[in-house]
Structure of DNA-binding NtrC family response regulator:
Amino acid sequence: MKKRVLLVEDSPSLSAVYQGYLANSEEYGVAAVETGRDAMVKLTQAPPQLLILDLKLPDMNGMDILKHIKAQDLPTEVIVITAHGSVDVAVDAMHNGAFDFLVKPFDAKRLLVTCENALQHRELAQQVQTYRDSFDRTHYEGFIGESLPMQSVYRIIDSAASSNATVFVTGESGTGKEVCASAIHQRSPRAKKPFIALNCGAIPKDLMESEIFGHVKGAFTGASTTREGAASQADGGTLFLDEICEMDLELQTKLLRFIQTGTVQAVGGSETKQVDVRFVCATNRDPWLEVQEGRFREDLYYRLHVIPVHLPPLRERETDVKLLMDSFLRQYAQEEGKELTNFSSEALSMLMSYDWPGNVRQLQNIIRNIVVLNQGSEVTAEMIPRPVCDLASRGTPAAPAAANLQQAPSVSGSGGVRPLWEVEREAIEHAIAACEGNIPKAAALLDVSASTIYRKREKWEKNGV
């Protein structure tokens, strides 16, 4: 397919020359206009992959078009051409997003090489953006997190979702195992079919078989009607069995038979029914240890443990705590009609210092408690409930760190104004030292993303500063 090129040149003779140059290559489909207005119309209707732009136009300055493309983030690479070439114009054009700058007159070879380079640059930029979208995400199908452990989880879900293979999710309570199962379903070809979740630890043992496979009328005391089980309800979709290691051994045998045959038989019934179900199961225990201790069937373990996904505890996701706090504060403040919008430095330090044994669920509950019970625009240390405040009262290094941060270096000193990067680096390193090397905590106190600090430090190291 030919690359779409828009040529904006007010001189008909020069426009014909440039179109002739491009005609030597079969790669380009060229459209030409003579005014800035016509160019803006074309850009609005269908942005080309490449724009060759004369800066001197009869109705406007070509630089305004360039600024429009940058402001709208159009997927268009720009080559600027002008007879009024100067270093200042070139710098200005590049600053406003131009890929390259050609001074008239130029020959066909120079134009073709520049066009090829511009389009290669556009393709590479799109690939980089796609990579970032796929592997540097802060929000993903109900998850909030930019940390490396969570990026790894997202990649596994991306890879596993399209398969029918069984996924076994492990992780402590509150880490988001059902969110993970739902994400797998939503990313799969089964997304428009049912997602049925069943908590094996919350249902009495005597009723569990009926919950999974259903029952016929009169099958047991209280079975006044025929009832469809979760397996049949999930036909064509996904069946999520949470806390699978809580399941009774006898029922594990029947579940194994169901997985092997794809058929279900209702309690008290004689007929079997074929169903198409994708299994996702989860536990907060070590499933292999459960097998070794005889509480979980080994053959069922091997049937289910095809694609393992381990959800990291929140204490291993320190870069995500601030993201989660801010998100929950916005959500709950809106729901409750409150004005709370941010955390004081002391409150932030207390929350960042806590290790969250209850993980994301506990953090959610703490933030909701704060929002429901308090007024004002800022979350202060006095608003934070137990057990987080108990930890602070016993004395953590967090409060001194926050206080010491106020002593960060100023912009100017005895030598006059200093370079901004130097002041920035000194402030960041001071914050990290005050937080005893805890970069996520330092980032929270500086009100920046932890990834920003990591990137800046990497850049300084590369530059040897």
Remarks:
- Residues 140-312 form a domain with the Rossmann fold fold (CATH 3.40.50.300).
- The chain is about 50% helix and 15% strand.
- The longest helix spans residues 108-135.
